[in-house]
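User: I'm writing a short report section on ligand binding and want a predicted complex to refer to. Could you take this sequence and iron/sulfur cluster and write out the structure as C-alpha cells? A short remark afterwards would be nice.
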Amino acid sequence: MTAENTIMINGNTLSFEPGETILDVARKNSIDVPTLCHLKRANPTGVCRICVVEVEGAHKLQASCATPAVAGMVILTESNKVIEARKLIIQLMLSSGNHNCAIRGHAGDDWTAFQLQVQKSDDSDELCPVWGDCQLQDLAYRYQVSSDPMLETQIPYPMETVNPFIVRDFSRCIQCGRCVQACNEVQVNLAIDFGYKSGATKIVAADDKPLKDSDCVFCGECVAVCPVGALVEKDARYKVRPWETQKVRTTCTYCGVGCQIYLHVKDNQVVKVTGVEDALPNHGSLCVKGRFGNDFIHSPERLQTPLIKENGNFREASWDEALDLVANKFSRIKNEYGSDSLGLLTSARITNEENYIAQKFTRATLKTNNVDHCARL
Amino acid sequence: MAGLAAAFGSGAMTNTIADIEEADVILITGSNTTENHPVLSSFVKRAVTHREAKLIVVDPRRIKITQFANQWLRPNLGTDVAWLNGMMHVIINENLYDAEFVEKRTEEFDALRETVDKFSPETVETITGIPAEDLQAAARLYAGAKTGSILYCMGITQHTSGTDNVKSLANLAMLCGYLGVRGGGVNPLRGQNNVQGACDMGGLPNVYSGYQAVDNPDVAKRMEGAWGIENLSTKIGLKATEMIPKAHDGELKALYIIGENPLVSDPDLNHAEKSIANLDFLVVQDIFMTETARLADVVLPARCFAEKDGTFSNTERKVQRVRKAVEPPGEAKYDWEILCDISSRMGYAMSYANSEAIMEEIRKVTPSYAGITYGRIENEGLHWPCPNEEHPGTQILHRDQFTRGKGLFHAIDYTPPAEKTDDEYPLYLTTGRLLYHYHTGTMTMKTEGLNERAPESFVEISAEDAEGYSLKSGEIVKIASRRGEITARLKVSGKAVSGTVFIPFHFAAAAANKLTNAALDPVSGIPELKVCAVKLSKAA
Ligand code: SF4
Ligand code: SF4
Ligand code: SF4
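Assistant: Sure. The C-alpha cells for the complex follow:
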C-alpha cells in the first residue's frame, strides 16, 4: 500500500481505485455513511447531503457520494460538525409535510391537530403507511432528531390515487430524486422529473399530469427506491407491514427474462412483490406484470378439485375417480388405436421438472413422441 | 428455433441479458421489447443513453423502442429476408465484413455472397419499402461497430419464412464476426417464462431432454436403460400445429393439454375449435377454467408457480429456482405429481419424493444440465451447458468454435408472405402482445389494475387509413379475413403504419386468431400469425 492510492477515514488508512468516491471506499470497508438520495446504478447527484463528511483542509463539508477519493485525503465521517449538519437536514425533512411517525416531537394540542389533519389526508387512522420501514425515520432515531414547529413547512400538493397501482403522497416527499433517477437512468422510462423548480418543487409526470396519463408504464421502480412513504403500492398500503410478512425468493412467472422476485407472504397470501436487488438478471427491477400482476394466485376462480364432464356439464370428482378415468381412457385408446393416436401438449408455464415428467410420461408410458408445447405460438 | 440450430448447432440465445449492455450496436427486429420484455429493454435503453451504443430498430410499427433508435427501418410486413440480404449486400460490397472470421470460423460464404449479390439497396427498396440510403446507413452502422448484438422475437419467427428469417439474422452476425464475444450474438427473446426450459426438457416431438434426437437408436437405448423400459418410439412425433389437423381427421384420438389455451393462442381458431371437438377424449390440466378447458372431458386442478418448488430456464439459458411461498387452493396438485399418478395407474410406476429428486434424474440423462444442482443455484442460477459440478456454466456460446463446428451460412432467397392483400382484403393484419397482458390473459386479467390499463381488444390503425375508410377512433368496427371475422374498437395511433392494422391477441372475446392464417413454416411448424389480409368496415 503506497500513499498514492490511500486515504484515511476515521483514522484508518484505506486504499482506493481511481474513480471511486469517498462513499465507495467507506462502504467497501464497512464504514456506515448514511445516504438518502444515493442510488446504485445511477450517477450520484449529492442533493440530499446526508452523506456529508469532513475532509481535512476543505472549508465546507463534502458530499461523500459525489466526491472522488484523492490520495492523501483525511476524512471524518461522524465528527461533531458532520453530525450537526446531518441533524439539521433530518430536522428540515421531518418538519415538512405529513411525517406523522412518532418521531415527530410535538407537544399537546398541536400534535393532536397535526395527527388529525394527516389522518384525514391519509384516509386512515394509522400512522404513516411505511412506519417502521422508512429510511428517514431510521435516521431520525439514529441521530435523535425530532421535528421543530418553527421549521414546519406545508406541501401544497394533494395525494394522487387515480391509478390502479401507485399512491403518490407528495406530503411525504423529501425531494431526494431517487425516483427520478430510477425512472430515467435505471429503467429509462423517462416518465417523471423535478417540476416547479423555482417554487415548491414537485416530482411531476409530463407537465404535471397524473401518472396514468403520462409515459409511466407502472414498473414500480420509483416505489421500490423511495426511501420514505411518498410512493407506496396501492394494494399494500396500510395492509402490509414488513414485520408481518415472510419473503420467499423465486422467479417471475411471466416473460422469459426470469426476473428474480420476492413474494411477500402474510397468512398464506402473497400480498406484495419486490425485485431481488444485487441479483441478475434484473438487479431488483421489475415490470408491471411481475410487480403488480399476481392477483391471479388467489383468484376465487382457481380450479380446486378435479372435474368430470357428464352430459355436457362438469361435476366435481375425487382425485381417485378422475385419475382412474384418465388412465383407463388413455389405456383403452392406446390399445385400440395405437400409441400414435395419443398426444400431449406440455407447457412453457410449468417447471423444468414438470416438463421433464410430461415428456417422460408421453414417451415411456404413452409410447409416442407426440409431445410438444404451444410456445411457438 | 430451427434456424439458429442449423446455422450454429444450438437454437438458444448465444449471449446473456447483461451482455446486451456491452454491445456497441444493437439491432432489434420483430420484438416490441419495451412491452414484451420490459426489464430486458432497460438494458438496451441504458446502453444507448449511458454508453452511447447505437441502436437499429427494424419494425413497421412505431413501437416505443424506436424513440431510442439511431436508425429505424420500416419494412413491409413479411419482407425480412429481403432487407437482411440487402444489408449483407452493402456490407460485402463495401468490404465491411470480418473476412478473418468468415474464413476461419464459417463455411458456405460463397453461396451467400452469390445470393445477396442480387439484393442491391434499390432492389430491396422495391420489395420492402425501405429507402435505399436508410438501408445503407443501417448496414454501415451495424458492420462498423466493434461488437453487435441482435435481438429478435415472434415478429421474426411467426411467418411462413420464419426459419429463413432467423437463418438470415445468423448470416448477418457471422458476416461481421459478432459471435462468441461479449456484447455480440444472435439472441431470440423467449416470450413465456419457461419456453426455454420446456424445449430443454424435451417438450418437443423430435428430442429428449438436452436436444437428444428421438430418431437416434443409441439415444433411445440410453433412455430405455435410464428409465428401465423397452420399446421407446424412434419415430418423430407430431408438432402442436400438426396435432390439431390430425384431430380433425380423426387420427389423433386423445389429447392431454397442460397449462395452455390453444383456443385463444392458435391460428385459424374456427378450425382449431372444430378439431378439438372431434377428439374422443380431452384432458386439460390448468389453474383456471380456460376456453380450452371448457371443451375437456376431464379438468385437473394444478398448482401455480407460487405454490411450487422447481426451476425455470430463462431466455438466456439460465436455470433459476422457483420456490413455494403459499399453499395451493383446494386439492390442486403439482403437474408432475398428477402425471406420475396417471402413469402408475397405466402400469409404469413413476414416483419422486420432490422436485429436487426429479432434477437429480434430469442431470443423469441430460448432459447440458449434468452440473446443475439445487445446491449450486441456491442464490444465483447457472447457464447451460454446464456439464459437471465443477463447471461454472456457459454465458457465451460458440466462443472458440460453433456447437456444430463451423458456422454455416445459408444462401436464402426472398419468398413473399403466404397471404397477399387484394381488392377485397386490402389491409395487412399483424398481431402481438401488450405490456399489461400476458398470452391469453388467463392470469393477467385477474388483476383489475391491468384490466383498467388495457380493458379490451382494439384495432390499431394509422390516421391516414382511418380517414381512407371513413372510420373514427373509438368506434366499433368489423374486421374480416378469409377465415373469420371479429369486432373490436378502432384506435387511431401513431404506432401504426399505413396499410397495416394491429390487434393484440390476448382477448378471447375478440380473438385475433380467428382471423390469422394457419399456413406453417415448413421447418419449425410455426404458423404465420404475423401477416394476413383483412378488410375493415363499420360494425352494423
Ligand atoms: S412506475 Fe416506472 S415508469 Fe412510472 S414513474 Fe415510476 S419508475 Fe417511472
Ligand atoms: S417521491 Fe420518494 S424517491 Fe421521489 S423524490 Fe420524493 S422522497 Fe425521493
Ligand atoms: S418482471 Fe416483467 S420483465 Fe421481469 S420476468 Fe416478470 S414479466 Fe418479465
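A remark for your report: The two ends of chain A are 60 Å apart (CA to CA). Chain A touches chain B through 108 residues (CB under 8 Å).
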